[in-house]
Amino acid sequence: GESVGLHLPTLSVQEGDNSIINCAYSNSASDYFIWYKQESGKGPQFIIDIRSNMDKRQGQRVTVLLNKTVKHLSLQIAATQPGDSAVYFCAERPGGYNKLIFGAGTRLAVHP
Amino acid sequence: EAQVTQNPRYLITVTGKKLTVTCSQNMNHEYMSWYRQDPGRGLRQIYYSMNVEVTDKGDVPEGYKVSRKEKRNFPLILESPSPNQTSLYFCASSPQDRVYGYTFGSGTRLTVV
């Protein structure tokens, strides 16, 4: 598999538990945020996004929370499954810029 | 199927030998970008393009070139590869010039010896 997961923080959870992955972003002017999932040997896949005028958004089994006061983003995964095992990245878009800035990522390991 | 296609998936080359990594998307996206990914680090932007014939540097452009002659293609060129360009490369595209989440290719693992 790919070696991009080396040296990343790892969150280990039991199958069926809820997972919370955290991300601190850098730019207080960022206006858009995304969570990506990257499985071994694959490119990142979009999970969920949120704009800066919101503080919570829900998808299927996933919820993103945004706290602009402390520049913190979290991804909650309900009833975590083995297929959720992957590296998760947050990304921010600095206001006025046509680019995304990615965090270093967190590895999620789901144990049966 | 809507996708971003990169080739090759794996490449081993020698220092100084010019190479091109191709990227093509079939979604009629205006915005395309190249990223590199290194162990323990997030994706770092190399170059991006907002439309045909419009390209600009990202955060780590040194040693790379790009071109955007057609909307669907965005090749990454390494004129004289060096070992510090050994990395995992991703091409990505987005449907508008204000980035609202990319579609990524599957990646190209490049090793320069």
Provide keyphrases for this structure:
heterodimer; A: 112 residues; mainly beta; four-stranded antiparallel β-sheet; globular; disordered N terminus; B: 113 residues
Task: Describe the structure in your own words.
The complex is a heterodimer of chains A (112) and B (113). By secondary structure, chain A is mostly beta strands. In chain A, 0% of the residues lie in helices and 53% in strands. In chain A, strand 6 and strand 7 form a beta hairpin. By secondary structure, chain B is an all-beta fold. Chain B is globular. The interface between A and B is medium-sized, with 26 and 31 residues.
| SSE pattern of chain B | EEEEEEEEEEE
Sheet with the most strands, sense and barrel status of chain A = 6 strands, mixed
Oligomer: heterodimer
Measured as a percent range, the helix fraction of chain B is under 10%
Low-confidence stretches of chain A: 1-5
The span between the termini of chain B is 36 Å
Radius of gyration of chain A: 14 Å
Apparent shape of chain B = globular
**Whole-number average pLDDT of chain A?**
90
Order of helices and strands of chain A: EEEEEEEEEE
Global geometry of chain A? globular
Structural class of chain A: mainly beta
Please count the helical segments of chain A.
0
Major beta-sheet overview of chain B = 7 strands, mixed
**How confident is the prediction overall: mean pLDDT of chain B?**
93
Query: Quick one: which chains have the greatest interface?
Result: A-B, 26 and 31 residues
Beta content of chain B comes to over 45%
Number of strands of chain B: 11
